[in-house]
């Protein structure tokens, strides 16, 4: 019995010393209150037989918790560098990140890094870097993503995100290197291929961009973004209206509310002399507030081309009522010559 008591007392005393060191180090009021309760419960436990103190099962659990469990957990956490608070902060940061509240998520992750940098993972740095990019803090984002890569050279998402950050900072050549690094690690990373293709097209390397888009298409992985981006290269950069039309049609097959594609199809069909199809395309495009005015203006041109002057006059009148700056533009369009007097007359 005496041996059992010695073991119990010695174990408690060792834990008390270790826990006391933690309390003196942290000077946390909760910690101080806990150690005071620990000592009180220990004294009561050790003198219970002397004063004939009866302790029930529930009270024994409380004694055991304050004398051993709580100090043991605190000591274990401290001496194994486990920060519960930091884990909670990172969990909250991930939650706000998933909610799209990048500003709050960034603050939480930055706090976590300042508190205990040693326990921050590559993925934590990646998420923080992405949040900072979303907040347009490109230099800070770059630094965090470099940290992520240094911790994990195979973090292809960090390379990809760093590429987006550098691209947004107009460092396109370096961005290309980062996207390429991401693809070396994960050759099936579609988002990196698209980002690389976009960057190539932005610096005039259309051949490489088209090759990447075709690679995605050949694997039957193309979505409306791939077809739309490819169409834009043919339309704006290479002037290949037939290829552009084909790709825009593929894009709207996948998303019939891609109004930018409908608008460009309307312009292409107008240039090809297919005015009826142009009208159909532009009527759809003007459903979007972003393309409404531009679509109506070009719609008026198509109406005049098929002798639908009344409809064109009506549209142009509404356009002028909304924005008088269109008057000079209308005057300079050769196709509006035969109706310009009626439009100006109505306008006056």
How would you characterize this protein structure?
- The chain is mainly α and 348 residues long.
- 78% of the residues lie in helices and 0% in strands.
- The termini are far apart.
- The model has no long low-confidence stretch (mean pLDDT 85).
- The protein has helices at 2-26, 29-47, 57-79, 84-98, 102-115, 122-134, 138-151, 156-168, 172-185, 190-202, 206-218, 224-237, 241-254, 259-271, 275-285, 292-305, 309-322, 326-331, 340-347.
- The chain contains 19 helices and no strands.
- The radius of gyration is 35 Å and the shape is elongated.
Q: How are the SSEs ordered, and which strands pair?
A:
Layout: H1 2-26, H2 29-47, H3 57-79, H4 84-98, H5 102-115, H6 122-134, H7 138-151, H8 156-168, H9 172-185, H10 190-202, H11 206-218, H12 224-237, H13 241-254, H14 259-271, H15 275-285, H16 292-305, H17 309-322, H18 326-331, H19 340-347
Helix pairs in contact: 1-2, 1-3, 2-3, 4-5, 5-6, 6-7, 6-8, 7-8, 8-9, 8-10, 9-10, 10-11, 11-12, 12-13, 13-14, 14-15, 14-16, 15-16, 16-17, 17-19
């Amino acid at each position: 019995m005496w041996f059992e008591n010695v073991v119990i007392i010695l174990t408690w005393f060792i834990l008390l010393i270790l826990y006391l060191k933690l309390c003196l180090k942290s000077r946390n009021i909760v910690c101080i209150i806990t150690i005071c309760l620990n000592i009180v419960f220990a004294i009561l436990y050790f003198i219970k037989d002397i004063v004939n103190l009866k302790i029930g099962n529930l009270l024994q659990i409380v004694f055991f918790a304050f004398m051993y469990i709580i100090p043991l957990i605190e000591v274990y956490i401290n001496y194994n560098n486990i920060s519960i608070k930091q884990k909670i902060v990172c969990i909250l940061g991930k939650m706000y990140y998933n909610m799209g509240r990048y500003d709050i998520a960034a603050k939480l992750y930055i706090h976590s890094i300042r508190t205990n940098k040693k326990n921050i993972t590559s993925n934590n740095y990646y998420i923080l870097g992405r949040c900072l990019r979303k907040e347009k803090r490109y230099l800070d984002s770059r630094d965090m993503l470099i940290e992520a890569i240094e911790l994990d050279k195979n973090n292809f998402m960090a390379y990809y995100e760093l590429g987006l950050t550098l691209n947004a900072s107009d460092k396109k050549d370096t961005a290309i290197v980062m996207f390429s690094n991401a693809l070396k690690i994960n050759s099936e990373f579609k988002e990196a291929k698209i980002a690389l293709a976009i960057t190539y097209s932005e610096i005039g390397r259309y051949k490489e961009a088209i090759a990447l888009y075709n690679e995605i298409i050949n694997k039957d992985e193309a979505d409306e973004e791939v077809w739309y981006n490819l169409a834009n290269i043919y339309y704006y950069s290479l002037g290949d209206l037939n290829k552009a039309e084909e790709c825009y049609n593929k894009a709207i097959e996948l998303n019939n509310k891609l109004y930018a594609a409908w608008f460009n199809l309307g312009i292409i069909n107008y240039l090809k002399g297919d005015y009826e199809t142009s009208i159909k395309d532009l009527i759809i495009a003007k459903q979007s507030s972003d393309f409404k005015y531009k679509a109506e203006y070009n719609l008026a041109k198509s109406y005049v081309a098929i002798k639908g002057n009344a409809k064109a006059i009506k549209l142009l009148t509404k356009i002028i009522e909304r924005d008088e700056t269109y008057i000079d533009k209308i005057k300079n369009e050769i196709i509006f010559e035969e109706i310009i007097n009626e439009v100006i007359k109505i306008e006056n």
